[in-house]
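B., you asked whether I could sanity-check this one before it goes into the benchmark set. Here's the sequence:
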Amino acid sequence: MRLHHVQVSCPRDGEDAARRFWSDGLGLVEVEKPPALRARGGAWFRAYDGGAGGGAVVAEVHVGVEEPFVPARKAHPALLLDSVAELDAVAARLEALGFEVDLGERHTFDGHERAHVRDAHGNRVELLAVA
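And here's what the prediction gave me:
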């Protein structure tokens, strides 16, 4: 068994804010939703092992419209980055975009360094790197 994707929610018309976080901030590539699902709104994002659009899919996040919308405060996806340097670079990019990155638990997960951030809609996201 393997994980295919995770889904987080956004309010109606929240797609542009989701793009700012997932694409501009984290560097995931937006992919088209299947035609049968497009009318629902939302957006899908992928990370590839070869960079932007190249290689195998290594992470997929679906941002779906939910009404009424309530952000996930505890439940969260955790994305594994390739290095601590990448973790630092992504954290800096997110901060430059105005997202608050929490490093308070950076050294609380054995063998990893981590950061927590809230996406554009307040959903919790964890970023990990092997230390």
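One thing to flag: The radius of gyration is 14 Å. Otherwise nothing jumped out at me.
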